[in-house]
Amino acid sequence: MNICLLLCYHCEIILRAILIYFIGYPCVIAGHLCQSLHSCNSSLCSARGNCSYNYDGSYNCTCEVGYFGSSCDQVDQCINRPCLNNGSCLLNSTTGDYSCECQPGFLGVNCSVLDACWPTNPCDNNGTCLSLPDRGYSCTCVPGYTGSRCSDSVNACDSDPCRNGATCIRVLTGFSCRCKSGFTGPTCDSELSVECTSTDCQNGGTCSIGGNTIVCDCPSGNDLYFHYITSLVSTYKIK
After folding, report:
1. What class is the 77-115 domain?
2. Class of 120-154 in CATH
3. Which residue has the higher pLDDT, 237 or 79?
4. pTM here?
5. CATH number of 156-188
6. Band of the pLDDT at 216, cuts 50, 70, 90?
7. Contact (CB, 8 A) for 49 and 62
8. Which residue in 21, 56, 87, 182 is a FRET match for 157, CA 20 to 30 A apart?
């Protein structure tokens, strides 16, 4: 500590009543001029702060209500209560900016926008609600539903997705195709190819292919000769 400051400190203790008028000014101790070296002057604190010094030479600025910072030069933007509808104002002590923590049912920079998605979700069938700045809302629908509120179910069969004369069956997640004989695949677009195997025709019958069916040429006996046609569920392979 500076010896002059130390002497002034003790001088203040001994002659407090006298030196109270000389805080911040030279004081006389034992006939010597002791210059106080505290740092307060008009340029350290802004017009919104009051400067006070410490005996170690440092200083403090005591700010007026609505101002903060080491020199009281930053405006407390929360002082004017910018957050509406009982929102809480949060001040950034570094930048001086503020943000609002809104009550349920409100949103926006100043909590001035009514949350159309609260307290109940206006979107049907588990749709996701998004509030809009104009106090409106939009719905994002789950698969299988459409419309402004997701209230309309989607008929995937309207686009006729099943091929080769197959029947389209509507299901919750989309559609399913019931294929006609000779076709397979999710949309019945793959044609089946049938081939003979050793077990298709019995009792010496000869196997041949007729269209998409297996034809058995049976040997004649007792003046009986006939063709035995099996169903398409016999062994097959995809082309």
Report:
1. mainly beta
2. mainly beta
3. 79
4. 0.43
5. 2.10.25.10
6. confident
7. yes
8. 182
